[in-house]
Specification:
The complex is a heterodimer of chains A (218) and B (210). Chain A has 218 residues and is mainly beta. Chain A is 13% helix and 48% strand. A six-stranded antiparallel β-barrel of chain A has the order 1-2-3-6-5-4. In chain A, strands 8-9-10-13-12-11 form a six-stranded antiparallel beta barrel. Chain B is mainly β. Chain B has two domains: 4-93, Thrombin, subunit H (Beta Barrel), CATH 2.40.10.220; 101-206, predicted glycosyltransferase like domains (Thrombin, subunit H, Beta Barrel). Chain B has a seven-stranded antiparallel β-sheet. Chain B has a six-stranded antiparallel barrel with strand order 11-12-13-16-15-14. Chain B has a two-stranded parallel sheet with strand order 1-9. Chain B starts with a strand and ends with a helix. The chains are: A mainly beta (218), B mainly beta (210). The interface between A and B is medium-sized, with 23 and 25 residues.
Chain lengths: 218, 210
């Protein structure tokens, strides 16, 4: 299932419930143990993780994305920053979409070139969000436009900035709002990557919250 | 053969196909062992069937050298362009890798903010196919850090404005004016075509080939 050179996303849930996500590639795999090298901004080194902590290793296949639970054997230390994992569990399908989509309410400002080239702005909030697009709820009707400049709040990070194309514009069931399904057409790769990480982290947090609720109810 | 340093925007090139014809152009961009040339209009069809193997590059008169080309790839563009690929270590970037041309395009820069977005009116000082520089009031750039993403609206035609996503680069401040370089991170096809045309036409014109 895993193989050397494969790109994977490793996620680890801290004890405070927050989630670390990092991209890596498999440097060694012998069926029992996998060694993963970091590809970018590997922040795991700075966390005190102990052997036998659980991580998720996500990877893409022809049939969609899979996630494999595993236990940490050796945690990365600088400078090499490789992580060694073992005791793989049963893989499960995570999402078939290109990007993870999460239900979140984040502030959005959409701008269009207006009269004499100045920008007109309208603000609303997301209903769901992925690195490829968003469903946005706006007050009142929306002036038709081919392109919008979009700025989306990402909690404590600087906002996400892109140019987007409205795919579907429909009235909200309550009649006072408009729902716009927006595709991000001209997102800088760095911004797409940042938003992809943010949505994955938020997805993990949402699922953890749901699991906690389920535990309390049972 | 020692590596030839080529400066974008200045070097005139003549492609020499085996049939004795000549295709003339200006270097628009230099990458590692790869050069993008803007050719005089009408040369695209000739180039497609010509398979030139040698390019004559006049870098600084009287230094004119003939360099063998590994591969030529025509680009469907206006004015036409060609990518010339060379053997490793034959070509290196001179003092400039992308040609810049003087152009005064009016644009509005949207400084993104979730609560108080603001717009800066600006005119370009120069543009290239991957970046542009604008002159603005120095105070307008307050709180716009290097690397920050901005969106620019450029009105290329009377009834249509295009949006470009820009990333702030270096700023030079002279008195109250700031000259700010922005990398063009993304642009839709129309905007990219217009910029390519403006840059290509200006390069040919400045070389007396327009």
């Amino acid at each position: 299932m895993l193989h050397t050179g494969m790109r994977v996303t490793v996620s680890y849930r801290r004890r405070d419930g927050s989630v670390l996500v990092a991209q890596g590639s498999i440097a060694h795999y012998d069926g029992d143990v996998a060694v993963i090298s970091p590809l970018d901004g590997w922040s795991f080194c700075d966390d005190a993780v102990t052997p036998d902590d659980e991580v998720g290793v996500a990877f893409g296949t022809d049939k969609g994305a899979q996630e494999l639970p595993a236990l940490v054997r050796r945690w990365p230390t600088r400078p090499k920053a490789q992580i060694t994992i073992t005791d793989f569990g049963t893989p499960h399908e995570v999402k078939r979409r290109r990007f993870v989509r999460v239900s979140v309410k984040q502030r959005v400002v959409m701008s269009t070139p207006g009269v004499e080239n100045a920008f007109d702005h309208v603000s609303g909030e997301t209903a769901d969000l992925s690195a490829g697009g968003a469903r946005i709820v706006l007050p009142g009707a929306v002036e038709p436009a081919e392109r919008f400049a979009i700025v989306i709040e990402l909690d404590r990070q600087s906002p996400f900035v892109a140019v987007g194309r409205p795919v579907v514009v429909e009235p909200h069931p309550n009649g006072r709002f408009t729902i716009v399904r927006m595709e991000f057409m001209q997102a800088p790769p760095r911004e797409t990557d940042r938003l992809a990480r943010w949505t994955v982290q938020r997805d993990f947090s949402n699922r953890a919250d749901e699991a906690k609720k389920g535990d309390r109810q049972s | 053969m020692a590596a030839i340093a080529i400066e974008a925007g200045r070097a005139i090139v003549v492609l020499l196909p085996d049939d004795g014809s000549e295709l003339v152009g200006v270097v628009e961009a230099v990458e590692v062992n790869e050069v993008i040339v803007v050719l005089q209009s009408g040369n695209q069809n000739t180039l497609l069937g010509a398979h030139p193997r040698i390019v004559r590059i006049g870098i600084d008169d009287p230094l004119i050298v003939d360099i063998p080309i590994d591969r030529v790839e025509p680009i469907d563009d206006e004015p036409p362009r060609a990518i010339l690929q060379f053997e490793p270590d034959l070509v290196k970037v001179g003092t400039r890798s992308r040609a810049r041309v003087r152009a005064e395009l009016r644009l509005d820069l949207l400084v993104p903010d979730l609560y108080r977005p603001r717009t800066i009116e600006a005119r370009t000082d120069w543009i290239s196919s991957s970046a542009l520089a604008v002159k603005v009031l120095a105070t307008d750039m307050k709180n716009v850090e290097e690397g920050a993403s901005l969106v620019a609206s450029v009105q290329f035609t009377d009834d249509h404005a295009d949006l470009l996503v820009l990333e702030r680069g270096p700023v030079e401040i002279a008195g109250r004016t700031a000259r700010v370089v922005f990398n063009i991170v993304s642009a839709d096809n129309n905007a990219r075509n217009v910029l390519q045309r403006v840059v290509g036409d200006a390069l040919l014109s400045s070389a007396g080939l327009g």
